[in-house]
Specification:
Blueprint lengths: L1 H8 L4 H13 L5 H13 L4
């Protein structure tokens, strides 16, 4: 039941949020700027 509710309410870019949080927990970002660039690119589709 929980999966069905999640699928109905999930935002289109929720996978990006999940991936960013996992990457933060693993300590794979070099610094805050790296994190912001990643968010801008994948979540907001901004190109450098």
């Amino acid at each position: 039941m929980m999966i069905v509710v999640f699928l109905k309410t999930a935002r289109a870019n929720a996978y990006v949020d999940f991936a960013i949080e996992v990457t933060k927990e693993l300590g794979l970002f070099d610094d805050e700027e790296d994190l912001e660039e990643t968010i801008d690119f994948w979540k907001y589709h901004k190109r450098c």
